[in-house]
Amino acid sequence: MMADHSAMSALLRHSPVEVAFGSGCLAELGRHARTHGARRILVVTDPGVEAAGHVARGLESLASEKLEVVLFNGVVQNPSTKEVAAGVEVARAAAIDFIVAIGGGSSMDCAKGINLLLTNGGDISDYWGVDRAASKMLPMIAVPTTAGTGSEAQSFALICDAETRRKMACGVRALPAEGGLRPRVAILDPDLTASQPSEVAKAVGIDAVAHAVETAGCNTRNEVSRAFSKQAWALLEPAFVPSLADPPDAAVRANMLLGAHLAGAAIENAMLGAAHACANPLTARYGTVHGVAVGVMLPHVIRFNVQDQGNPYGDLVEDAEALVSIIEEMLRSAELPSRLSEIGVPREDLPELAALAGEEWTGKFNPGALNEPALLELYESAYE
Predict the structure, then answer these.
(1) 167: nearest Cα among 381, 330, 357, 8
(2) What is d(CA 351, CA 377) in angstroms, rounded to the nearest whole number?
(3) Using CA of residue 37, residue 40, residue 46, residue 50, what is the dihedral sign?
(4) Which CATH number fits domain 5-193: 3.30.870.10, 2.10.70.10, 3.40.50.1970, 3.30.460.10?
(5) Same fold for the domain at 5-193 and the one at 196-381?
(6) How do the pLDDT tens digits run along the chain, 384 residues long?
């Protein structure tokens, strides 16, 4: 069944991001941009999204409002300081006053990174952390083409250091209208996710599921974040396996896209946990796709967290072992790896990975206390 957007309206009022949701709503992009004061727009995207035709339809909508547009299509997976710097050059030369991101989490993160440097100068590393920007961001609209990261609901950009590949989380948490990094508008058009390559859909889908799970259990969960986590899970859990069909039907695509957005809003109102803390070093060290890395770690993190905590995930599933079984079945159905040995991690690297994971910010929000021995235990349990 197609998710009822009207039933979500009360929940979405807790997010300052305006949401347009429904088949074909990409056509509203120009109207939304004009409403929020756009005149000269930087559109940030990647070649794959452009080839799928989504950018052309977005540009057509912007042209219908007689808005000037310059295109930056240099986004790559896990965008780095290099891609951000290239985008800033394009934006500065065109004297843009508005940003539109069309694509997956990488396009949205890169657009936010461009926004930070264009408005505040310096290097991305200057903004690693929370609220280190002095000047207001330009207004932005996000158009996700994958059902995964929920970046369109969040005030953080994840940018890799081009040299070390460490991911830097840079957040500006002011309200969008007050110059924060969250988009003014999220355009959630499920028609756009029909073009997701199968491997992308699997990886971003399990990442969205992990967002619902980790926010439900994190030690900063609250009434608002719990509502977002529960509703995200209610949409994502029954839709994930059907979303693997080729092609998935429109209702399944819609539920995955809206569920991913709500899970992103849950992150914004709470935080994540050890699965993401352990996943980031895997991506930095071995190039493991983020969602794949998170999926490998998630069942082991759930089991770790219920050892002494009871079940912090009780809002989703009463029995934590049942939750683990659901996640493991999702991984099997998607033919995603469930062990570190399957993704080429040498066992002798585990102590170093534990040390790196201990430096990750998201680990501080895990319901079970983390230290290096505990993180090593997690990696060991996930190895084989």
Answers:
(1) 357
(2) 10
(3) positive
(4) 3.40.50.1970
(5) no
(6) 445 555 566 777 778 999 999 999 999 999 999 999 999 999 999 999 999 999 999 999 999 999 999 999 999 988 999 999 999 999 999 999 999 999 999 999 999 999 999 999 999 999 999 999 999 999 999 999 999 899 999 999 999 999 988 889 999 999 888 999 999 999 999 999 999 999 999 999 999 999 999 999 999 999 999 999 999 999 999 999 999 998 889 999 999 999 999 999 999 999 999 999 999 999 989 999 999 999 999 999 999 999 877 899 999 999 999 999 999 999 999 999 999 999 999 999 999 999 999 999 999 999 999 999 999 999 999 998
Cα separation of the two ends of the chain = 38
- Pair of tokens at residue 330: 């999702």
Return the ∠ at Cα 193 (arms to 195 and 27), rounded to 5°. Answer: 105
Whole-angstrom Cα distance, residue 232 to residue 225?
Answer: 10
User: 């983020």: which residue's tokens?
Assistant: 290
Question: Residue 161: CA atoms inside 13 Å, Cβ hemisphere, count?
Answer: 14
Beta bridge partners of 80: 160
Longest CA pairwise span in the chain (Å): 59
56's tokens: 């052309």
Relative to beta strand 129-130, strand 18-21 is unpaired
Structure tokens at 259: 């569920």
Please tell me the distance from the alpha carbon of residue 96 to that of residue 40, in angstroms, as a whole number. Answer: 5
Prediction pTM value: 0.95
In the structure encoding, which two tokens stand for residue 238, read together? 């029954």
Q: Assess contact for 62 and 104: CB atoms under 8 A.
A: no
CATH number of 196-381: 1.20.1090.10
Find the helix or strand (DSSP H, E) in which 265 lies: helix 250-269
**Cβ contacts of residue 167 below 8 Å, gap of 6+?**
78, 158, 159, 160, 280, 283, 284
Distances (CA, A) of 170 to 182, 214, 231, 335: 12, 20, 27, 33
Contact 46, 83 (CB under 8 A): no
The ranges assigned to domains in the chain are 5-193, 196-381
